[in-house]
Amino acid sequence: MKNELIDLLCQKSVNVADEPRFKLVSGRLSDFYVNCKPTILHPRGMYLTGHLVMEALADLSFDGIGGLTFGADPIAVAASFASELMGRPVKAFSIRKEAKGHGTGAWLEGDLAPGDRVVVVDDVATTGGSTIKAIERAREQGLDVAAALVLVDREEGGLENIRTLVPDVRALVTRTQLMARFRELKK
Fold first, then answer.
1. How many CB atoms lie within 10 A of CB 101?
2. What's the CA gap between 145 and 72, in Å, rounded?
């Protein structure tokens, strides 16, 4: 399954240029860009992502999975759906970038309660900033963050930065793995 997900990411999500031209969230330009959404929102990509995330977290006991909208949302939904199919249900949640402007003013959407153990997910980690923001916001809402998982680690220090808040940080795929397969597919 992992090799199939890597192939889908290479086909649908990886962009490579001869010189830095892709602007990252950090504001920096890069010659490598991954937009995971076309892969995760594809039916097969969603299936693979959900199952691989749950397999990667098989050693953990947790109640919910989610993170900062929109990068984490399709991953959390796919994993929650797969968790039910696997007989190990966990709830998906989403953390807003801004508090809801009406109703309860909630930052977090989902069926979780303070004290619930969660895994924070994200699509790509460069510096880890979005994942860190999600971890902080989840904790502010009273959630116990057991681990963090990113779909793609750009291998630029993001996982190490996230580990300052959560020691258990995992990546499904690394930039090295993607680039090796990307080059093979381009031959």
1. 7
2. 15
Q: Where is 29: in which H helix or E strand?
A: strand 29-30
* pLDDT single digits (tens) 17-53: 989 999 887 788 999 999 999 999 999 999 999 999 9
In DSSP terms, which residues pair with 174 in a beta bridge? 153
β-partners of residue 68 are 95
Dist CA 101 CA 87 (whole Å): 36
Class at the top of the CATH hierarchy for domain 2-186: alpha beta
- The label of the residue with tokens 């937009």 reads 35
- Strands 14-16 and 32-34, by their bridges, are antiparallel
Quote the tokens at residue 167: 């020691």
Cα pseudo-dihedral 36, 68, 129, 33, rounded to 10? 10
Q: Where are the domains of the chain?
A: 2-186
Spatial separation of the C-alpha atoms in residues 85 and 152, rounded to whole Å:
24
User: pLDDT digit string (tens) for 133-166?
Assistant: 999 999 999 999 999 999 999 999 999 999 999 9
Coil vs helix vs strand at 28: coil
Tokens 């693979």 appear where? 48
Tokens, residue 183: 């080059």
DSSP one-letter string for 64-80 = EEEEETTTSHHHHHHHH
